[in-house]
Records
---
Amino acid sequence: MLIKRPRPGDSARIAPSEITAEDVYFNRRKLLKAALALGAVGSVATSTASERATLRYTRNERYSTDEDLTSFEDVTTYNNFYEFGSGKGDPAARSHRFKPEPWSVTISGHANVTGTFALEDLLKPHALEERIYRLRCVEAWSMVIPWIGIPLGTVLRRFEPTSKAKYVAFKTVHRPEEMPGQRGRVLPWPYVEGLRIDEAMHPLTLLAVGLYGKPLLNQNGAPLRLVVPWKYGFKSIKSIVEIRFTERQPPTSWHLAAPHEYGFYANVNPNVDHPRWSQARERRIGGGLFDSRRPTLMFNGYEKEVASLYAGMDLRRFY
Amino acid sequence: MKPAVVRRVIKPALFVACLLPLLSILWRAFELGGSNLGANPVEQVQDTFGQWGLRLLVTTLAITPLRDWLNAPWLAMLRRMLGLFAFAYVSLHFLTWLVLDQGLHWPSILADIAKRPFITIGFLALLMLVPLAVTSTNAMMRRLGRRWKTLHRLIYPICVLAVWHYYWQVKADVREPLVYASLLGILLGWRVWKRSSRL
């Protein structure tokens, strides 16, 4: 899984024949059982742990920083993923019941191709790449993470968004029985996020399936998450089950929870403070007790790549 | 409880107990026994000191009601030690922020105190604790006489500011600050009720 590379000349589009029909998809266990009963299938290949253990990918040097990586330990134990609790250690400690497979994603809204797709089918035509990005949390700490994924734009284009698709809305899975944080009403569930279509299509925007060479762990947003490196971490929505092309700006969870503190854009900006704390400097995770804060860079250091998206916009107003 | 027992057993035990959070931080800072302070040690140290400062402030405030409810006058003998430990942890919390978090970067520190309301009120609470700590000796109690009691009523606004500081600092999960707020409500409410029922 996840390792097929497109052959030269492949179009980015899904051929209609490649898309599993919804009814077939939802009845796949039944169909497999039926096939087994008939003896038509010798062994059932479900996605096993060994299959998920490693990913094949190539490093994208152009979009990777050469800064020191944050340790795997820190990346997988210090997380904000309120679906599993609001403490930084909660996602690692309380996500073991979460089942990231099988997984499917619903594509809907203003696009020619819509439907529900098995994750494998969604990813099949694409080659995975590794990108080492800075991640800047709105709480003024940061990490450097080797993500593995696919540029979101190349995936989205296969669904042929129409001219009415001005925004892309994302939704996290809602499973209170597996996600203990969703049993409290700390945020309105399910978590939702959104991007303007040009932000979604930007080559830096990544649809990630792994980090450090391995599939995403539950606490990092398994099995599929967004990574938008020039925006605060909360924009990079985790465990995505729905992608919708919309004409109007979609609602976003943190903006709903505290509109004057978290905007739709949430671009990393050292000059626009959070109302309760400064965004001018940040703490790099892994530096230890005596490491000092470092200055935060405009658009988290991706200014050259993304500043043109916001030309003429008042970034104080559209924070 | 006999005063001698309180002095010789309970107070030393409480002293050691109040030192435990500090010792646990030092233990983990030196990574003894394979322990550590986690991915964000500065935040861990700062939060731990702040949490214990708040817990001890509320405990100090609980002494008088508990003394009444449990009919245990000896509890009042523990109040000064609890109050001074509260001051110590709040100071460590502030110093951690000043030195380890802000790296003594004065422009940011002053801007934060002036512009961030949750930091402003936290700082204010610390400033108000200083005269209480300074006047905590027997000599000062004698010297101030009746005014001592009036001065030490500052503990009420200090606790309100401390809980508010915590409430304002969290992003969305306000459940824990609300627990402190409820405790504070009970402890202060009891005093109001007691006062009005005496009139």
Note: Chain A is about 15% helix and 20% strand.
---
Amino acid sequence: MAERRSPAAAFAARFEAASAGGGPRLAEIPFLTQIDLRVDPKSPAAERIGTAIGVPLPLEPGTAVRGGDLTVLWLGPDEWLLLGPDGAAPGLVERLTEAAAGEPVSVVDVSAQRTTLVVAGERARDVLAHGCALDLHPRVFGPGRCAQTTLARAGVVLVAGEDGFRMLVRSSFAAYVAEWLLDASLEYVTPPAGEAAPA
Amino acid sequence: MLLIPCPWCGPRDEAEFHYGGQAHVAYPEDPAALSDEEWARYLFFRDNPKGLFAERWSHTAGCRRWFNAVRDTATNEIHAVYRVGEPRPVIA
């Protein structure tokens, strides 16, 4: 089997240093399962899929629901992204295809398309606000909300959680977004004693 | 920057959108029967009003859906957004 390398693996040490220095908690969650699902929400297939994955597809724009170890993100009026743990893809695709039962439903494993970055802690909102025009206040964008938008001009899917955000970034943009996040958090990071503050 | 209210996602920055020109330009019923001039009119001739204009937008960095908006070309105020297939709303 070929060796797997996550798109932001090279940033692990710098993420850790920034997190330890009082900045936002930055990390990568590599290899999450991502399944893109397109189905008419009014069709019986959508209902069967809801039953099969144990949670109904969210119909309100910009919402995410959790069911077991799955998170279902609303991407469009007939499009959802299913997030699951590493290795869940084959079984999930099979369950979804079975529930579709020949109806016009599209199920595509897009796990390799994006990686997941975590921006958490009390400074998370401040850091994202450097490059994202959305109102991220918990009153508007609290847990259970998700959005496709741009962060520093890179397309991202933002998912709000209890303690911060998970951010799905295209693999080819991961290094850019990681560099940008580190740069944006610089002002919140206290350098270790004895080192000069970054210029 | 314009703040464009996507009918699905709510207000977002103009930079997330892609412009699609005049809305409600119907495809000719029998394109083969058109003269060159009529075909050229269908392809290239668009209204250019100063004032209310119904136009298509696509929320490319968000839900990736096309929708229509009525925008005042003189003030850039967006008076209405509506989904594809819905009739143009009457604005007093």
Note: The mean pLDDT of chain B is 95.
---
Amino acid sequence: MIEFRGVTKRFPDGTVAVDALDLVVDSGRITVFVGPSGCGKTTSLRMINRMIEPSSGSISVEGTDIMSRDAAELRRGIGYVIQQAGLFPHRTILDNVATVPLLLGWNKKQARERAAELMDTVGLAPEMAKRYPAQLSGGQQQRVGVARALAADPPVLLMDEPFSAVDPIVRETLQDELLRLQSELGKTIVFVTHDIDEAIKLGDKVAVFRTGGRLAQYDEPGVLLSRPADDFVDSFVGRDRGYRGLGFLSSAGLPIGDLPTVALGDRLPSEGWALVVDGEHRPLGWVDRGSGPVDEAALVPGGSLYDAGSGSLRAALDAALSSPAGRGVAVDGDGRVLGSIGADDVLRALADARSDENVA
Amino acid sequence: MNWVSQNLGFIAGLLSDHIVFSLVPVVIGLVLAIPLGWLANRAGVGRTVVVNLAGLLYTIPSLALFVFLPVVLGTGILDPVNVIVALTVYSLALLVRTVADALEAVPPVLVDAATAMGYAPVRRFLAVELPVSVPVILAGVRVAAVSSISLVTVGSVIGFGGLGQMFTDGFQRDITAEVVAGIVLVVALALVVDGLLLLVGRLLTPWDRAARATRQGATA
């Protein structure tokens, strides 16, 4: 747990970067600091490992006041990933990753073994070990940056806009991998970004900062989308927030209706659409009414599917809207067809969820 | 060229003097320039002062320095230490600026990353900032070494000019071969030392070559 108590940072020129911040970062979760430039999100992050020292107030990590510890020692126990990776150009990838273990006094062999392990964890091929950072792509360098931050297994990981310098496709891969890593490692992660979509995708909780270093709202992403605290958060969260908010509501309560299914070679339905399934009851496509047997040429590609167990209302609604039959296909974890839902079912579920919230 | 073959022992002695007189100052100059350059780079105003003072040193005429140093140092006028000290002053003047510039060119994001990993300042300097600066510093050392090799010859006015003795001696005794051999040897020595430094640089910075190759590949 990281706790900010009345933390203010005033720079010598008088600018207040962070203004009386009170905030608790939960252990084992990803907390995202997001906001426009000059909102104090990066300053807040950098105060956690004393790269910047607070003017007043206090910060504690796992109950210990950070000012009571030696700065360099404190930092060795907190992983740090920065924007352009900040790798040491004169050291091989393996030695870059081994940096903190070596600083902690491990012997070289142990440190390198650990580094090799970490390279594997973040998905870097072993043959990269002997290369220098300049020989890697931006995305690969960023992975090395993450591996280096994790090498000494610190409980806390600070990430300062780590994915903002890579192209959108690589960024998305890196985000997915961070989520996968986190599901295995369960670190206390503080992640800074100016990209609200990234914040909502990654954050278990999101702190929205406004210019002047004030915390505007601190909530789970679903709450941020459904109930922004004020106009600033509303406009910062951006367009389509109603639709995006559905992504945080479970589709588990949706009533799954019947769905006519046929197999290849069966007779076409005499009215309406039917879903064509294979021997495993997995969807192949839709067919419209007609006569004669179902053959592959008649298949109309289906829309998106949603997983009735783990899917969100957003996935369910998209399945309904993208289906040629107007019915979204619900599947189980193995991709087998369970039934279908309509867009109106999703809207009704949403209304129910809202009234539940109001009761609570 | 008869003269040369008859005086090989004499020439060899001058050559070894020349190597000592020219390169020991570069080594001492570098050792002093690293902390001074570091200091210069830390303090904003201090930097201007240190770098300009160093630049000023370089403008002192070498002849004046050879004559002036015995007074300051209390050495005899005919003491080889004068040559070593004078050339150290020049090397230092060149290298302080080089080291300060090299350290300034270290990307701030690297220093930041190193600090955040938990390097204390001195260890960070030795493990990150200095090694990353090696290519730039080495370029400065090559200039300082070649310039020092050439400047030693001026020491011949006080009798410690290494191969420069061959100029004065050759002129006085009107032996053209001696003068020419002296010039050729000084130039050859400068080329050899420069080449060796280049080689040392390559061995010290395999990462720099890797980076260059990648950049060329990217632009090709």
Note: The CA atoms of residues 306 and 330 of chain A lie 5 Å apart.
---
Amino acid sequence: MSIDVGRGTRHTEVHKMDRVVIRFAGDSGDGMQLTGDRFTSEAAAFGNDLATLPNFPAEIRAPQGTLPGVSSFQLHFADYDILTPGDRPDVLVVMNPAALKSNITDLPPGGTLIVNTDEFTKRNLTRVGYATNPLEDGSLASYQVHSVAMATLTRKALEPSGLSKKDAERAKNMFALGLLSWMYHRPTEGTERYLREKFAKLPAIAEANVLAFRTGWNYGETTESFAVTYEVAPAKLAAGTYRQITGNTALAYGIVAAGQCSKLPVFLGTYPITPASDILHELAKHKNFGVTTFQAEDEIAGIGAALGASFGGALGVTSTSGPGIALKSETIGLAVMTEMPLLVLDIQRGGPSTGLPTKTEQADLLQAMFGRNGEAPVAIVAPRSPADCFDMALEATRIALTYRTPVLLLSDGYIANGSEPWLVPEVENLPDLSVRFATEPNATDGSGAFWPYLRDPETLARPWALPGTPGLEHRIGGLEKAENTGSISYDPDNHDRMVRLRQAKVNGIAVADAEVDDPSGAARVLVLGWGSSFGPIGAACRRVRRLGMDIAHVHLRNLNPFPKNLGALLANYDKVVVPEMNMGQLALLLRAKYLVDAASYTKVAGLPFKAEELQDVFAAFVKGLDS
Amino acid sequence: MTTIDLGLPGLAGVPTFEGAQTAKDYKTDQEVRWCPGCGDYAVLAAVQSFLPELGLRRENIVFISGIGCSSRFPYYMNTYGMHSIHGRAPAIATGLATSRGDLSVWVVTGDGDALSIGGNHLIHALRRNVNLKILLFNNRIYGLTKGQYSPTSEEGKVTKSTPMGSLDHPFNPVSLALGAEASFVGRALDSDRKQLTEVLRAAAEHRGSALVEIYQNCPIFNDGAFDVLKDAGERTDRIIPLRHGEPIRFGAEGQHGVVRDPKTGALRVAEVAAVGEQALVVHDVTLDDPSYAFALSRLSGSELDHTPIGVFRSVSRPAYDDLARAQVAAAKDKPADLSSLLRGKDTWTVLD
């Protein structure tokens, strides 16, 4: 079969749009994540700004065709800079009745619904509780419905390939991708190249997927059912070279870069856990950068090995999520006591306990802050978007190495798996993070001894003396240490001093001032957020301003210590609103530290905030002050 | 001179010290705070006098311990050291040993630390064959928490936490290590300096994980636990010295021996006069099949009636840390171009 793709001759009406939100939804075995990823890459290659929201069950293959087995991928792309993957889809592609049932309520009236009709059998409909076929009973009348027998069309197109019916139908996700690519004038070369690379060892499968993709494209082109296509022009982003990146990839690259910038070998000790495992997978590919990855027997051994490597002079890193961070608490405490650099990457997910492994949440902040026995302060940073994970990995490393302290980096499932365009940094502009190890005895009493707890007067950091350095042999550990000499000490005054010194060291970490986004400069309401809610909060603030109201937004990336200007900033506003995907953890810290009457707005649904919902909340606060 | 020239292939990569070292060089200024009469003193003295013989640079030796009486050990060794968390020393040591091939890394642990809270880390370190020398001080009691039964206490042990006697069946640490794929397993007595030193040296020479169980007396909470192995009248009939290449026989006159039971395939103790010298098992630490060493370990249980002492097993198997460093070294054949990594395959450029 010979098909020309991309040279359509049929006249369709072309609508120019500034932004579109598409959601692909199907069974978890239908390849929706791959389909969404590929459409994202096409949008990125075209130069749109974009943001994505993958949403999938924790089960690898939940029972087929059931509501719990539905997997979806939402993509927002635009010709201007956008902040979120969109609240509601403009176009919903559903591969089966379960996907329709669990997603249709998000599609606004008038929205486009593209349905794979092959799965709408009586049995499948009954399984998810449809008494009648929604494609026939008029219940979808408010949408523009396109019924397409995707599996049948794909199978027929692939008949010459000799693939089994089952294998042929598995390529129906590529049919859907081809159809959507046609509708939105997306470039297709990248996907074809990708499929041939992905299935390089299975050329028959590769060609079948390419053919299914082209068949979907041609279906749009040649059938009359689609009268309109859409164009979303490239976005006018800042000049430079861009790529699409997910938060976990950006974080892994940030760790590789941190190793290069510090000239230290990187040692990742970790244990697989959703949604943090991709950091291990990515770093395992980059051993040529001096990265060692160690898949330990458990979470505790993962962080233990990382701390052992730090003792030996490596950049020790561990990654985890959910209950994993609880298991690591004891070793974080040891790193606090031994005052060694250590990066703890916590990709937060829904909790408590096993909770919602594949859903997002920001509920580990107080655990990061206080979740250890004794007074055990650590530095905390939080990236605000997928691309920001790269920068915050470097920031966490700077703090860990400069102050000889564990640093907790709080990402979450939303930015870990979500993607956006990233202005690729020039390597020569990355910070110098190089370290000076101790080489000489340092005792101030003329003894010629080495004192492992003699502090740098500016940073309060203790020296980092590596095994193998003659004359600096010393012992560290979890018992309280005498100031300066580091010998075991049970002296009451010494303990009080050391507790205060460890706290002062963390309090004194230099961090950038918080920046205020308040275009009019007249705002009386300040919205303060942290972490992955940057996008929805920013988008909601824009909407509120378009309604003619003033509102300010500050987004914290350093959570311990807070930026030095934060207290003064909070005092500048009549009302401070703190939206969080938890029960108000940052708000609690702010109220305690700054005695500010911050209002907490919380939602813990496992999904990011919608800009629409935050818009209403923020507008109500602005109006409340005005009235 | 390298460690290879010194005949210490197990310590390959660790720099040597050209001058003379003495036990004093390995002592710290810290006051040793074990109870008077504690077996730990004897082990500390043995290690401090044995290490100088190895001829390594002292700064390239690291002792890592967990929590417990024995885990205070690093504070008394003038090397690098870390007194870490209960049970986690093998994990921490694994990270250190893997990232630093130039260090000789020792783990000091006890029966509670290694076999109870840290059991998982111990078996995985042994399975991976990380280049660690693990000294397991077994006193069959919890000392630091003042006298509760441990995972090696004999059944029915009456302690503060088990006034009617303990109910748990104990571990046999040698059997456990062999089951965990350990490539080197030995056993020694705290009171026998010469034999302890021999086993320590063999452990040091071994490439990979080496577990040495040291029977150690706790004079406060489990005094005399191993007296039957020390008593002049009893010890010769109880201790079975293991010597590679020699028939296994013991007793004051060498009248007892170890033979294979043809019915079960297990090993048992027999009278040489009754079975004949030819029937005695010849000790071989290099047997790849661990079932022989395991059978040896089953000759003694809690009751210490027949207790093999020495090296049970010493076989060659690639060490995890060597393999991990080799992978990184091999990967470095590929250029490490950060700029190209960050850009990836698909980029687009926005012009001014």
Note: Residues 440 and 472 of chain A are 7 Å apart (CA to CA).
